[in-house]
Amino acid sequence: MKVPKKTMSLCPRCKKHxxxxxxxxxxxxxxxxxxxxxxxxxxxxxxxxxxxEVFRKNAxxxxxxxxxxxxSECGYKKYGRPQKVKKYEIxxx
Length: 93
Fold this sequence. Notes:
With 93 residues, this protein is mostly beta strands. It has a domain at 1-27 and 61-93: Nuclear Transport Factor 2, Chain: A, CATH 3.10.450. It has one helix at 35-44; strands at 2-4, 6-11, 16-24, 63-65, 67-71, 77-79, 83-85, 89-91. It is elongated. The two termini are 15 Å apart.
């Protein structure tokens, strides 16, 4: 799917329609000391290792891609609608 680099959208901070630049949202680094991660590591230790089976059938080709919109005036960031596409390509106008 081809998406333009810039689009007009409503900015809740500016309270008007401004130009937004589109980029793809990427997940941040996992926190190793988070409670859920520590519990998972503790469960993995010892005999039997993985608490759940690891899914190995790569059935899905399309991944959900979330666009990240940034206001050109104030720098406010908001998420666009996530879409299931094989390829999410940002093109310059």
